[in-house]
Amino acid sequence: MTARVWPRRLTTGLYWFWALQFALGAITKYWPGETFFGPPYSMQFIEWGYPSWMRFVIGGLEGFAAILLVIPSRRARFLGATTLAFVLTGAVTTHIINHDGLSESWAAPTHLLIAGALALANWPADWRDLLRVAAPPAVGAPRPTE
């Protein structure tokens, strides 16, 4: 096995681990009862000053971002990490406004820093790359290698 394959596998594994965390977070937002994180999110969102149904929006965004993170494309991973950065910015702001203690709110800023690093790592060379539709390779054309 070449030396170049291991870093790619490690990176892919880290993206999958990161996506699994947010997929689990998305599932718990839809869970009607208590979670292993504490009381039901329907109650937590109300305590934070949001309507109970907002947990479905946040859970949907987290699930969507988790899917984008496991797609082996810089564009998809950038959009997934950016989506998480926006969601986590709201989470950090919510914890600050509600004066939550560090024991309750350490995860959101930590995840925000990681999401920001992932977004920067997958930053497109040109912003228009986010809008371009990938053209299928021509028949008989050699496939590009990374």
TrEMBL record:
Entry keywords, A to Z: Membrane, Transmembrane, Transmembrane helix
Keyword Transmembrane helix attached: yes
Residues that span the membrane, as ranges: 12-32, 52-71, 78-97, 103-123
Keyword Transmembrane: yes
A Pfam family annotated for this UniProt entry: DoxX_2
GO cellular component: membrane
Membrane topology: Multi-pass membrane protein
Compartmental location: Membrane
Parts forming coiled coils: none
Main location: membrane
Record's protein name: DoxX family protein
Organism name: Nonomuraea muscovyensis
